[in-house]
Specification:
Length: 284
């Protein structure tokens, strides 16, 4: 039963790793197996490229804020939904916030372009009612990363909310009964029972997300960015795409990808250790 999945992983995940040697070559597709070796020259070339440090900073900033938001917002909504008494409203609202998670960024990108349009988008029309000038959310270097962070959280927090709601079901109801007998109101019950009960899963999700520090969301940004926002919106993945696919600089692009993979592997290893150490999470 596992054989088809193993074959797919071998073909699409492990076999392409042979191409990592391109990072250490002056690669020429016409000389596929005889391109000259240049050692770490491609890594040095990328390091000294103009704007390379800014791209790394953009990636870290956007990714970190996405990670923080995808913890804070789902936990908050899970706590709020947990206080809703009517089951029908609770399930309906839970389904509503979960729906965007099933949409691709191709579709979500089109939706965002429409609703954030400075001329006829519903957001800017609403701002116009208060006398606020139209904001170029997708064309202004200041607003673009903020828009990416907020829209990514909007799309994905429903999934996280479901996880934290499931964590709430594991809390012993007798703890709440004892707290009510002792005179604790809903706020104190949340602080002293609900949040501590959710803490193991919060810690687990937090440490496991460390591996995504250099993944700021290629699909999202590629579908929404433009040259006017490269200064603050260009990330490692989009830069690699332009460098390797559009400019055919295969060796430097591979070097960047290899650097990112090594860092991500290190962070994933650290996060797995932390998850095992503090949340008792183990794969085996």
């Amino acid at each position: 039963m596992l054989l088809p999945s193993v074959i797919v992983v071998l073909i699409y995940s492990y076999l392409p790793m042979v191409g990592l040697v391109i990072a250490f070559q002056k690669f020429n597709p016409a000389h596929l197996f005889s391109s000259p070796w240049v050692g770490f020259d491609n890594f040095k070339y990328v390091y000294y490229m103009p704007g390379s440090m800014q791209i790394l900073w953009n990636t870290l900033t956007i990714a970190l804020f996405k990670i923080i938001g995808m913890i804070v917002v789902p936990v908050t909504f899970a706590l709020l939904l947990n206080e809703v008494g009517k089951s029908l409203f609770k399930k309906s609202f839970q389904t509503l916030i979960y729906l965007p998670n099933f949409l691709s960024w191709i579709i979500m990108g089109g939706v965002l372009i429409d609703i954030l349009s400075p001329s006829d988008g519903i957001v800017n029309q609403g701002l116009g009612l208060f006398g606020i000038e139209p904001i170029y959310f997708l064309g202004d270097p200041f607003w673009f990363p903020i828009t990416m962070i907020v829209s990514d959280i909007w799309k994905g927090f429903g999934f996280g909310t479901v996880i934290y709601l499931a964590a709430l079901t594991s809390i012993d109801p007798s703890l709440y009964e004892s707290a009510r007998v002792d005179g604790a109101n809903r706020w104190k019950q949340t602080i002293y029972i609900t949040l501590p009960g959710m803490m193991p899963i919060i810690i687990l999700m937090s440490v496991l997300s460390l591996g995504n520090v250099l993944n700021a969301g290629f699909d999202q940004i590629f579908n929404l960015y433009s040259a006017s926002v490269y200064e603050t919106g260009d990330i490692i993945d989009t830069f690699v795409y332009r460098l390797g696919i559009e400019q055919t600089q295969y060796s430097p692009a591979t070097a960047i990808g290899l650097f990112k993979s090594v860092v991500s592997f290190t962070l994933i290893s650290i996060s797995y250790y932390l998850a095992s150490r503090f949340a008792d999470y183990r794969i085996f």
